[in-house]
Amino acid sequence: MLASDNLSSTYIPLRLTYGLVPIVAGADKFLNLLVHWDKYLPANAATILPVSPTVFMYIVGIIEIVAGLAVLTFLTRLGAYVVMLWLALIAVVLIAGGNYDVAVRDLVMAVGAYSLGQIAGLRGDRWLPFAGSTRDVPTHAIVR
Fold first, then answer.
1. How far apart are alpha carbons 110 and 115 in whole angstroms?
2. In 3D, which of 67, 74, 76 has the Cα closest to residue 15?
3. Which domain holds residue 74?
């Protein structure tokens, strides 16, 4: 098997996972079919929000959908790092609310999103489609 096949066999499932899962979770912020998401918002955080917890979750849902779409489109590398940061921030909120088990899972998923960003870089994906090449590795090491 070629090195590019090995890279694609990792890149494709990660890209689908970190593209589709945020879209589904984001859409569910409006539907509450999987869980009532505002239960994960710490009570003290809910009191300082300028909007209701429900509206806050709608905003979170929109951000998640946009991040997932970025991963699935031509912004995979940038989107992967946005998803990584987003998952880490969610973990901080979960820890503040005492939901340690879910926080650990989000941190593990953040590591996977980071891995996708790194693999996208190895593939030569640009941060932005109109930007010059900003590869993190020498050209001879890039595998497509």
1. 9
2. 76
3. 3-128+137-141
